[in-house]
Fold these 2 entries.
Entry 1:
Amino acid sequence: MWRRPSERFVPRIVSSPTSETRADLSGVEAQVQRLVENLKSETVETQREATSELRLLAKHNMDNRIVIANCGAISLLVNLLRSEDAKIQENAVTALLNLSINDNNKTAIANAQAIEPLIHVLQTGSPEAKENSAATLFSLSVIEDNKAAIGRSGAIAPLVELLGNGTPRGKKDAATALFNLSIFHENKTRIVQAGAVRHLVELMDPAAGMVDKAVAVLANLATITEGRHAIDQAGGIPVLVEVVELGSARGKENAAAALLQLCSNSSRSCIKVLQEGAVPPLVALSQSGTPRAKEKAQALLNCFRSRHAGRG
C-alpha cells in the first residue's frame, strides 16, 4: 500500500520530449479525461473506480499530476470529499494529497475551496482518510496564505483530536500539520486552546517515535504566554530537560529553545528546570550542539546565573 509521495523510484525524463513521450502523455490525457467524466457519474461503483485510478495515476509522477489538474479533476475530487461512500472519500482525499506535491496544484486545491471539505474528512473519514486529510492540510500549509486560511476554517480542533486519538500514522500527520500551522502566530493560541499541549507532552515518550515532531511544535507554542502555562501545567518541563539530555540534535535544539522561553518569562519555571538537573546537559549542549542549540543552551545558563545573582 502506498504510504507517502515519493519520486525516488520513478525514472525521470531528462531529454527533451520525444514523439514517444508525447504519445504517452496524450494517452494519459485521454485516460484522465475519461476518468474525470466518470467522477460525475451517478453510480457509486463508477465513481469508486475513477477515484481509485486517479489516486494511482497521481501517485506515479509529476507529469500525471499536471495532466490530472489540467483536465479539471481537482474541483470534482474536492466535491467527492463529502461523499457518503467511505471508499470514494478515501480515494478522493488520497488523490488530492498526491496532486498537492505539485506546488501549482497546492494553490489550485486551496482555490477549489478544499479546506472545509478536508476538515469534514478529518471528522468523519476512515483512519486512512483522516491521515491523508491531515497530510493534505500540511501540504497546503506550505503556502503562507493557507496557514491563516486553514487556522481560521476550524481545522485545528480536529487535527488536535487526531493528534490525541489517531493511529500512529495519523498522530504523526497531525503533528506535522500543527507544526506548520504554528509558524503563523495567530494559530498558536488556537492550538493551545484546542488542548494540543497535553498530547504533545505525552508524545515525547520515546516509545511513541515522535519526540522530534512533538518538541518542535512545543518550541513554537512556548513563544506565547498561554503556551508556556500549558507546557508547565502538562508536566512538560521534566520531559523537555530529558530531551536536552538524551534527544537527537534537532530535538535538543528545540527543547533548549522551549526551556529558554519558559525560564526567561518565569522564575518559577527557572527553579523547576534547575531542580530537574538541567545544568550538566545544558553545559554539554553549549559545547557540542548545533549552532542554534549552543546559543540557546548558553542563554539558558546565563539566565540561571542572572536570576541566581538577582536573589543576592
Entry 2:
Amino acid sequence: MLRSIATFLCLRCQPVTALPLHLRSRATHSVAENQQTVEALYDLSVDIQKVRKLKGWVLLQSPAYTKEVAELLKNMGASGPIIAHILTSHPEAVLCNPEQIYTQKELWMSVCPNQRELVGVIEKFPASFFTSSSHHDNQRNNISYFQSLNLNKRVITKLMASAPQSFSRPVEQNELMVHTLQQAYQELGGEEANMKIWLQKLLSQNPFVLLKPPEVLRENFLFLRDKGFSTPQLLHLLSRLKGFVTELNPDSMRRTLLYSQDTIGCSETELRDIILRCPALLYYPESTLAERFEGLLSAGISMCQITATPTVLELTTQIVNYRVQQLKARGYDIRTGSLEVLNGTKKDFEMSFGKLQLRRERPLFNPVAPLKADD
C-alpha cells in the first residue's frame, strides 16, 4: 500500500519542461488575445511585449487586418523595420479596415509630394494617418479649403500630421480662425501681397493655432494695445510671435510684464522696446524668468548687458553656463564683451565660437611693416 502511494506521488511530482519565454507569454494571454493578430505581429518583428504593456486591448480585438496593413505600407515603400516601428508605436493601425486605409492614402497623396514622404509622415505621426473613417468627409473638405488658400502642400501636410484634430472637425471652424488671423493682419497694416507667406509661416510654426478660439487673439491684442503698443508695433509682435500669439492670455502677460519691469528697473516705454526686441518675454512665466535672470547675473553679466541683448533670456541657464565656459576657455571675457556671441541656436553659437577661435589663432598682418628679407 505504502509503495503504491509513493509511486503515485513520484509520478505526480515529475518535473515539467519550461516553455520558452515568448511561448510562455503567448500561453498566458491565449485565452483572450486574438492569436492571428499576435502571430502576424510576431512575423513582422513587432515588439509584442511593448504592445501588451501599453496597448494590450488592441490584441483582444477582432477582426484585425495586420497583414493587409503591413502589405499596404510595404507597397508604399516602407521597409520591414519601419513597418515594425509603426505597428509597435501605434498598434491600433491593425484595426483599420483596408478600404478605410486606401481612402486615407488617397487623401494624403493629394497634398503629399510622393509615397516616400508619406511613409516618413506615417512613421512619425501614425495616429494622424490611421484615423476613423467618420472623419474622411471633414478631412476632404479641409484639404480643399487650405488648397484654396494656395498654401504650400508641405505646409498642409504638416498641419494634417501635427494637428489632425483641425482636419477632423467641420471646415467652418478653420475658416473662422483663418479669417480672424487674416483680419488681424490687415487691420494692423499688413500688406495683402505678403499675407499668404505670413499665414504659411504662422501655421508652420504652430499648427495648433487653428484649435484656439478666435476670441483669444482679439483679447491679447486689446491687452497689448492698452499697454501702449502702437499698431505697427502690434504687427511686429504678431509677425515675430507667429502662432504663439494665441498661446498667450492677458493675465499671464500682465504678471510677466510686471515682474520684468520690477527686475530690470525700467520704465514702461523701455520695457516695450525690450519686448519688441525679444517678444518671447511675453510668454515666459515669472519662475522661468527669475531663473534666467539669476543665471545670467551669476555668470557675471550685468543688467545693462541683458537689456542691450534681451534675446539671451531665451536661453536656458544650462546653455548659458556652458557657452560662457566655452568662451572663457578661449579667453573671451563675457563681462566686458558683447552678448551677441551667446545668442542663437547651437549651430549659430558654434559658428560664432569658431570665428573667435580663428581670430585668436590667426596672426595679425600689418601692411605697413617692412618685410623681413634674408641676408
